[in-house]
Write a structure and sequence with these properties.
By secondary structure, the chain is mainly beta. Helix content is about 0%, strand content about 55%. A hairpin with a 5-residue loop joins β3 and β4.
Length: about 100
């Protein structure tokens, strides 16, 4: 049996879980329409340290894991960009 899930009405970027984390965390987000989706992680200097998502996705809700192996302890920011939405950002804490 297949269950059809309605597309989200609005974009949503949730707080990563767990937070603080070491070194794995999950990031959940939703996009209301098909298009190019970008989810990137930045350090406090604004430098991109990882690209978690950079692909065409259909409307829907998603969860992606982020592995911070090799990064220093500290504060990082992750940003969601997708068609038809304002850029959304959240803060996360890596503790080793």
């Amino acid at each position: 049996m297949t269950t059809k899930i309605a597309a989200p009405r609005a974009a949503r970027l949730e707080q990563n879980s767990p937070n603080p984390f070491n070194p794995l965390t999950a990031i959940r987000f939703a996009v209301p329409q098909r298009g190019r989706v970008s989810l990137k992680v930045y350090d406090t200097r604004g430098q991109i340290v990882a690209t978690v998502v950079d692909e065409e996705l259909p409307a829907g809700a998603y969860e992606r894991s982020f592995n911070a192996q090799g990064l220093a302890s500290g504060t990082y920011f992750y940003t969601l960009k997708a068609p038809g939405i304002d850029v959304q950002s959240r803060k996360m804490q890596l503790v080793k």
